[in-house]
């Protein structure tokens, strides 16, 4: 039994380290988030291209305004609005909705991480 465990142990440890490596979070890139934030995305319906700044503006410490509804959007910058980026469900909900509306598809996990990293720097 001891012999079998000694033989199997390196395999188990190697497998566990692979799981840990694959579960290691990727590094979010605030610069990539900023670039994605400013990029204008063409719209499939031919309407004016949109970017995140269309509704949120370039200065995330200031309120924005939704392009369609005119509804005021509170500042996204955690430095002036500490409630931002504190609720994972809200973050996921709004990224899903806003990516679809702005980009025309759901954002990838990397894009979401980059956007959040950028917003956190504001």
UniProtKB/TrEMBL annotation:
Keywords tagged on the record: Heme, Iron, Metal-binding, Signal
Signal peptide coordinates: 1-27
Keyword GTP-binding annotated: no
PROSITE patterns per the UniProt record, alphabetical: CYTC (PS51007)
Short name of any one Pfam family annotated for the protein: DUF1924
Domain of life: Bacteria
Domain Cytochrome c residue range list: 28-122
Protein name (database record): Heme protein
Annotated organism of origin: Thiorhodovibrio winogradskyi
Lineage start: Bacteria, Pseudomonadati, Pseudomonadota, Gammaproteobacteria, Chromatiales
């Amino acid at each position: 039994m001891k012999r079998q465990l000694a033989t199997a142990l390196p395999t188990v440890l190697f497998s566990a380290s692979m799981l840990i490596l694959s579960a290691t979070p990727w590094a979010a890139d605030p610069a990539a988030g900023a670039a994605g934030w400013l990029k204008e995305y063409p719209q499939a319906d031919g309407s004016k291209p949109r970017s995140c700044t269309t509704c949120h503006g370039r200065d995330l410490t200031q309120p924005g305004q939704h392009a369609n509804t005119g509804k005021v959007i509170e500042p996204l910058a955690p430095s002036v609005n500490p409630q931002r980026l504190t609720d994972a469900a809200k973050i996921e909900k709004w990224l899903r909705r806003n990516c679809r509306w702005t980009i025309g598809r759901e954002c990838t996990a990397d894009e979401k991480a980059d956007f959040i990293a950028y917003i956190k720097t504001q």
